[in-house]
Backbone:
C-alpha cells in the first residue's frame, strides 16, 4: 500500500507527523483519545462507545494478528472515527485472520496515521486533556474542528427496532445505547428471554423481570429520551443493571450529575475497588464521562471506586436491586475479573 506524509493535528495546536494511505485526500475529524491495551484492537475499533473518536493506540505495534471473523467483533463495523498507531503490521500472522488491519481500515474508509509518536500524543492528552483533532495530509490545515459530542451519537449506533433473543421464564429488557455484542453473549448465558430495544423505546408498559442499560458513545446528557423513560421505570421496582453510559444515564435519572473527565479511562488494566466485597479488581474501561460523587442521592452509595484517580466507578441503591458500573464487566478486550456482576444481576432477576 502506498503511503504519503500526513499528520494528526489537534485543535490546541499540537502537530504529530506520520504517514497515511494515499486514498486519504481530505481531513477526517474526531475527538483524539488514547487507549493502553496491548491487544484487542479489533474489539476496541468495533465498540460503539468509540463512535466519533480518533483512537490512539499507545502499544507500539498494532495489527500483527490481523482481523478475525465477524463473530469476534463487538458490532457490525468499525465505529472509531480514526486510528493512530506507532507501527502497523502489513501482515496478518494468525491462522484465523480474514484480513490485514490495513486492508480492513481501507475497506471501511477509516482514516489511519501510522509512524506517529504515540507516546508523545498520550503525554500531551494526559497533560492537556482530550482534544478535538483531525487526521489530514501534511500540507492541509482545516479551518475548524467538528465536535462529535455535540451530536446524538447514541441515535447513530443504537439498533433501529426491537429484537428478541433467547427463551426462559424470565424476561430482560436490554436498552441498546450502542451495546457491545459481548454483553448480549453474557446475558444469553442465562435461561432468559432478552428483548433488545432502541435507546428511545418506551418499555414501561411491558411486563419484564429485569432492566439492562448498555454502554454507548458521547455525552450522557444528550440521551434525554432514555433518561425520561428510565425515570418512569423506577416505579416498577424491577432489578436494574447499567454499564458505562448506562451508569451515567442511571445517575442522571436519579438527579445526580455527570462531568467530563480530563482524558477519560480507556484500556484494559484499570484497578477498581469493590466496596461491598472489599477487594480490588482489574477492569476494561472506555468512557469519557463520570458521575459526580457529591451529587449522589442519600439512598444511593458508591459501589466501585477507581484506584487510579478516585472517581466513582459504580453506584448501588441502598435498598432496591438497582446498580451500575462505569467499566466493562463483559470485557472483550480485557480481564474478566468483573464478570460476577452479571451473576449478581441474574440472581436479582430470578427473585422478581
Residues:
Amino acid at each position: 500500500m502506498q503511503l504519503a506524509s500526513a499528520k494528526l493535528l489537534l485543535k490546541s495546536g499540537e502537530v504529530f507527523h506520520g504517514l497515511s494511505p494515499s486514498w486519504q485526500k481530505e481531513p477526517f475529524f474526531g475527538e483524539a483519545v488514547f487507549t493502553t491495551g496491548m491487544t484487542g484492537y479489533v474489539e476496541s475499533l468495533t465498540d460503539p462507545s468509540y463512535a466519533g473518536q480518533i483512537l490512539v493506540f499507545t502499544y507500539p505495534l498494532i495489527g500483527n494478528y490481523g482481523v478475525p471473523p465477524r463473530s469476534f467483533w463487538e458490532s457490525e463495523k468499525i465505529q472509531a472515527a480514526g486510528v493512530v498507531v506507532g507501527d502497523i503490521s502489513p501482515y496478518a500472522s494468525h491462522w484465523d485472520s480474514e484480513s490485514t488491519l490495513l486492508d480492513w481500515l481501507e475497506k471501511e474508509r477509516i482514516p489511519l496515521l501510522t509512524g506517529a509518536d504515540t507516546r508523545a500524543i498520550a503525554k500531551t492528552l494526559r497533560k492537556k486533556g482530550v482534544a478535538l483533532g483531525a487526521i489530514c495530509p501534511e500540507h492541509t490545515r482545516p479551518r475548524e474542528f467538528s465536535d462529535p459530542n455535540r451530536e446524538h451519537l447514541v441515535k447513530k449506533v443504537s439498533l433501529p427496532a426491537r429484537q428478541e433473543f433467547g427463551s426462559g421464564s424470565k424476561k430482560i429488557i436490554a436498552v441498546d445505547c450502542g451495546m457491545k455484542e459481548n454483553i448480549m453473549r453474557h446475558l444469553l448465558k442465562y435461561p432468559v428471554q432478552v428483548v433488545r430495544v432502541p435507546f428511545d423505546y418506551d418499555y414501561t408498559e411491558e411486563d419484564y423481570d429485569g432492566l439492562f442499560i448498555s454502554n454507548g458513545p458521547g455525552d450522557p446528557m444528550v440521551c434525554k429520551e432514555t433518561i425520561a423513560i428510565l425515570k418512569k421505570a423506577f416505579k416498577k421496582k424491577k432489578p436494574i443493571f447499567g454499564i458505562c453510559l448506562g451508569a451515567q444515564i442511571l445517575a442522571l435519572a436519579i438527579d445526580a450529575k455527570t462531568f467530563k473527565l480530563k482524558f477519560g479511562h480507556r484500556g484494559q488494566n484499570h484497578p477498581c475497588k469493590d466496596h461491598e466485597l472489599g477487594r480490588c479488581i482489574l477492569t476494561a474501561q472506555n468512557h469519557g464521562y463520570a458521575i459526580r460523587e457529591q451529587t449522589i442521592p442519600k439512598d444511593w452509595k458508591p459501589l466501585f471506586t477507581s484506584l487510579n484517580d478516585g472517581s466513582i466507578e459504580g453506584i448501588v441503591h441502598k435498598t432496591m436491586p438497582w446498580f451500575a458500573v462505569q467499566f466493562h464487566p463483559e470485557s472483550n478486550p480485557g480481564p474478566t475479573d468483573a464478570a460476577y456482576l452479571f451473576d449478581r444481576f441474574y440472581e436479582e432477576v430470578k427473585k422478581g
Q: What stands out?
A: The chain has a mean pLDDT of 96. The chain is about 20% helix and 35% strand. The first strand starts at residue 3 and ends at 10.
